[in-house]
Amino acid sequence: MVYYIIRSRTDGKYLTARVDDAKSGYLLLFKEDFEALSYLNTHAADLASQLTVESLASSQIGSLIKRWSFAGVGIVNDPLLPEVEFLQHI
């Protein structure tokens, strides 16, 4: 399966969400590229030109979480609300 992530064009950091004052964030994953674009247009329209949407194979998620020390992933089920399901990495 392929997910889509949002990444900064300037410093290469990924879009994350912090939950309950956690030290590390949750990498936000989108099921479709247009959902990631909808999220950007709705919640960060003024920053959209500084961000890009990239594809990520599900087999790469674990290594990305470890490399960047994310707490887990947040799967965005509805980009307009947003509705996010957080999954902690063990």
Order of strands across the biggest sheet? 2-3-5-6
Beta percentage is: 35-45%
In total, the number of strands is: 6
- H-E string: EEEHEHEE
Major beta sheet summary: 4 strands, mixed
Number of helices: 2
The secondary-structure class comes to alpha+beta
Structure description:
The protein is α+β, with helices and mostly antiparallel strands. It has one domain (2-88). 21% of the residues lie in helices and 38% in strands. It is built from 2 helices and 6 strands; from the N terminus they run βββαβαββ. The protein has a 4-stranded mixed beta sheet. Strands 1-4 form a two-stranded antiparallel sheet. It starts with a strand and ends with a strand. The mean pLDDT is 93.
Topology record:
Elements: E1 2-8, E2 16-17, E3 26-30, H1 33-43, E4 51-57, H2 61-68, E5 72-78, E6 83-88
Parallel strand pairs: 3-5
Antiparallel strand pairs: 1-4, 2-3, 5-6
Give a short synopsis of this structure.
With 90 residues, the protein is an alpha+beta fold.
List descriptors.
alpha+beta, single chain, globular, 6 strands, two-stranded antiparallel sheet, 90 residues, 4-stranded mixed beta sheet
